[in-house]
Amino acid sequence: MQQQQWQQLQQFLGIASPSGSEAAIGRAYREMLAPVAQDIRRDAMGNVIASLEATGSSQEALRVMLAGHCDEIGFMVQHIDDNGFLYFAAIGGVDPHWVPGQRLWIHTAQGPIAGVVGKKPVHHMEAEEKKKVVPLHQQFIDIGAANKEEAQQLVAVGDSITVAAEVFPLQGDRVAARGFDDRVGAFIVAEALRRLAQAHEERSYALYSVATTQEELGLRGARTSAFGVDPQVGIAVDVGFASDHPQVEKSRLGDIALGQGPIIPRGPNIAPWLFELLRDTARQQEIPFQVWAAPRPTGTDANSMQISREGVATALVKIPLRYMHTPVEVLSLADVEHAILLLQAVIPRLPAAYAAAVANA
């Protein structure tokens, strides 16, 4: 990955975007693609849709949608008690195990306010307490306020919250960060469009790269944007569970490792011909890849795209990720670059492959 692209990805990761509060990352997405996209718009759900027109007849061009969700998990202020402590609820799937002791940002109308999740000292805990996980609704945030009135001058019920976790380079090309899930997917679909636009090749397809919203709350942005774009082919880009670290079972997750290429899922959520095209293109282009068995709906934007309107031929590309839905998600930047290269190689092949699939249906 070139330095310019790495800086862009870091910018995405530095923007707080809990589900329902994606406006800031949407603006960054627009700024990234403004020099190359022929049209960029934001719909009522906050999805940002950047497009390239076909160079031939737009009526005959295959409509292709790429989707990467730009929202992340987080929290929301629910209650301020008399002593100025904040009680909160999860936005998306948060594991309460890792929350105590975290540093947080509360995103207020005046800007971000620092806070910490308080925790009872281990010295004062009974033996049974040490074995239990404190439910989220019993955890609290300390912003240093003296009382309720002081806290209310700074924070309001409904303010969103994110963990204060910076991008943290590890060894080699491995990087840890909050919210790779799935701001890396939004970055990948944007970068794929940018590279295809700059290739200056004939396009017999119209491409729509969408930064979707509220995926963590039920694939909501993908559902509305797919209805609006009305694609014939859709490819979602998300993260997938790596199994190359302790405490996971490869017999359940498959043999998925960082640095071995993007994951190409196979199953009922995926059009068979589209899986084969991704697989065969990766082989021809010598792009490393891994296959993941997906016997059920994948729990990604591919679900919503596949069943939009009369149905969409759908595929999914995943980036192997360790420690999903924690503040220290870890991935390999090589896998990110290989996913971009795969999309860049596959998309121009889609019109002929789609025509063949329809003819053989």
Q: Regarding CATH, which class of the largest domain?
A: Alpha Beta
β-sheet strand percentage: 25-35%
What is the mean predicted local confidence, pLDDT? Answer: 96
Number of strands: 17
Biggest sheet record: 6 strands, mixed
The topology string of helices and strands comes to HHEEEEEEEHEHEEEHEHEHEHEHEEHH
Provide the domain count: 2
Which ranges are low-confidence, i.e. pLDDT below 50, for 5 or more consecutive residues? none
Distance between the termini: 39 Å
Write down the overall geometry.
globular
Structure notes:
It is a single chain. This protein is α+β, with helices and mostly antiparallel strands. It has two domains: 3-72 and 178-359, Zn peptidases (Aminopeptidase), CATH 3.40.630.10; 74-163, Peptidase M42, domain 2 (Elongation Factor Tu (Ef-tu), domain 3, Beta Barrel), CATH 2.40.30. 30% of the residues lie in helices and 26% in strands. It contains eleven helices and 17 strands. It has helices spanning 3-14, 23-33, 127-130, 148-152, 180-198, 220-229, 250-253, 272-284, 301-306, 333-346, 350-359; strands at 39-42, 48-52, 62-69, 74-80, 86-91, 103-108, 111-117, 140-142, 160-163, 168-169, 174-177, 205-212, 233-241, 263-266, 290-293, 313-321, 329-332. The strands form four sheets. The protein has a six-stranded mixed beta sheet with strand order 1-2-12-3-13-16, sandwiched between helices. A six-stranded antiparallel β-barrel has the order 4-5-8-7-6-9. A three-stranded antiparallel beta sheet has the order 10-11-17. Helix 1 (3-14) runs antiparallel to helix 5 and helix 8 (272-284) crosses helix 10. The longest helix is centred in the middle third of the chain and has 19 residues, at 180-198.
